[in-house]
Amino acid sequence: MPSKKTPVVKPFTFTFMASLPPIQSAITFDGMGDGARIKLDLPRSESGAAVLLQQKGAGKLLKVTVEIIKDIKPATQGNEDDDDILSRVLGDSL
Question: Which residue in 18, 43, 45, 57 is deepest, having the highest Cβ count within 10 Å?
């Protein structure tokens, strides 16, 4: 008797542009230090992605990949470039 193969289900994926808002609470950690909440700002052109994320992702485990685009810098960053900030924050773990 031939064995039945379980069909491979590809995960639902989509990509959108976003940035961390220039506020202190953009990333907050819970009181126990074992979890965090990240807020993202999406431009109007990406608002459909927010709706899609809510519809498809609410209550589900998400795999998040971040690609930092070096040529987009927030105005609050001053003269420090991305590599300087990463070195200062992450130290020798880079």
Answer: 18
